[in-house]
């Protein structure tokens, strides 16, 4: 069986789940931010795949992916700014205090 | 030929993603993330998305990785490593279920695969899709404002009181 | 030509011009109060453009990415009013971050632009980008105080918001992959052309739909995506808490209504499914919100849980929209009326809280003891808004609940309405506790609590609207009915 649409989508699904696992399970805010980037990359793979197989002439999926990349960059910038602000106000590198994902 | 490249890239991508999540050393995790970004660019090439592959290298590998590495340095998190939280087991179950559901769904759905051969090179087509007639002009304008908001926000948050 | 379409974007463009003006003036002006005046002037101009366009026939512009219809214009006007009231209510609070006032106003306005575009966007790409525009500015505003609590709230909000938008994006991708289109009307055409098979035969569509609900569910804080609410509401600057609980939530409902009704509302097998999904989420959301609110001791957290419960009541309206078949729009108009009433009531309650906490510098409910004597007017206003949140006469809350529940009963959701009425009775308990503490508690001092004219104006406007919506609802109901006119319906 040659590689087709389903294989790419399955790869995207696996990467997305790994990213979500990292978000839920990790305690370090920077790592969580990294995992969010994994999730967005997974979505982009799906978008480009659909662009290639479903609408190969319109390229809507690739255009969508460009917007996702822009938003991801902006989110990463603001996220890192907040992480540095929090690091400053706490004057601490204690991971337990940095660990904010405990609901 | 593409098949072999795909399987190699897919294996490297999954391995790199797992490394980000599992490695104890946060700096190595960041470097695996860079590797993941590069393999994703390779995957775009196999999908005939040449422009997007370049964008991926420039923005993700060039800019976002640097941003993340700088953040790691500035917060001196390296010495504390990358420990998992208390939610590890439930998170693992949730994500395995999600992965199985997603894969089952994409495998069992009848996608409307078009027989057309893909357009290459894509740069001009994407440019027209963004700025040309019937293109996505509005989202382009909105992202301009979005970048303004992000710049304003980052400056406010990073400056001392 | 498309350039002419930009004329119809006058409200957004004028507001963006105002944002740039605020940023520039901030460089030269020492007297920062002028910036607030400029911002409010910009909001009024933009609201003026919106009002002028009210009543024009609905069109979609910019190659089907943006609709200019009664629905969009109504929400644009609502966001502009809310943003203006928030800026008025921030007047004493901004002294806490003297140096960054210009950026504060600019970000409030930018997120208002994002929400306005969100209510009008008719294309998945435009919706995603507009959602992120309002989202990113709100992340920054939540962390604006830069103290421990505020930064922590900002970080939590950003990380969870980014995850939610990634999930939403996956849902959008599946819908796009399944249909090959991104514009909502085109998706609707595609779905109507499909053989009527039922949603279980189209798993990708079902999964896309669930992920969309999950992603938007974060924005409106419905179960199980409500856990960010209490921490973020407590840590954020109080005017921003009010902004989040009102404008951001209303924007979430507006975009859900448009996406689900316009794109996924057409085949009955489709809408009945998501209608039932929203009905179940609604019952759980309101119960969780109300029960946890009872044990809160911080008024911002309590109002946070109360806003989760209110989202539950609002979801009754969405469920009704899904269950309604044919051309009945009572679900939509009920939802829009409830959103109107919720916006002014919750805003009023938060403004009263801002005014009181500016003075006593505490958000603990116990510290509100004796407010009835220390600040009679504020206490009267807060009591009035809390009564409206319970849904007692003569307030907006009562009419809104009757309106939205009667629509639900007509479409076979009697069980949900019973759950909602029981919940309203539970909610009376914690709302009235605040009232009791304020009027029967013993004040620690006889000192009066002062408040500035800006806050009083904002509070008076809210209370007046709550009263008007409750006493003469007729004209507001007809506005809500007009606002159900989408492009493409």
Structure description:
The complex is a heterotrimer of chains A (103), B (161) and C (489). With 103 residues, chain A is mostly helical. Chain A has a single domain, classed as Helix Hairpins (Orthogonal Bundle). Chain A has four helices and no strands. The longest helix of chain A is centred in the last third of the chain and has 31 residues, at 60-90. Residues 99-103 of chain A have low confidence and may be disordered. The model of chain B has no long low-confidence stretch (mean pLDDT 88). Chain B has helices at residues 2-22, 26-46, 50-74, 88-108, 123-131, 137-158. Chain C is mainly alpha-helical and 489 residues long. In chain C, strands 1-2 form a two-stranded antiparallel ribbon. In chain C, strand 1 (59-61) and strand 2 form a beta hairpin. Chain C is globular. Chains in contact: A-B, A-C, B-C.
Keywords:
heterotrimer; A: 103 residues; mainly alpha; disordered C terminus; C: 489 residues; two-stranded antiparallel sheet; 19 helices
Computed over alpha carbons, the radius of gyration of chain A is 17 Å
Q: What is the CATH H-level superfamily of the largest domain in chain B?
A: NADH-ubiquinone/plastoquinone oxidoreductase chain 6, subunit NuoJ
CATH topology of the largest domain in chain B: the name is Four Helix Bundle (Hemerythrin (Met), subunit A)
CATH domain topology of chain A:
Helix Hairpins
Identify low-pLDDT runs of chain A: 99-103
Question: Low-confidence runs of chain B (pLDDT<50, min 5 residues)?
Answer: none
Relative strand content of chain B:
under 5%
Shape annotation of chain B: globular
Assembly state of the chains shown = heterotrimer
- The total of beta strands of chain A comes to 0
- Helix tally of chain B? 6
Number of helical segments with 4 or more residues of chain A? 4
**Overall pLDDT score of chain B:** 88
CATH class of chain A: Mainly Alpha
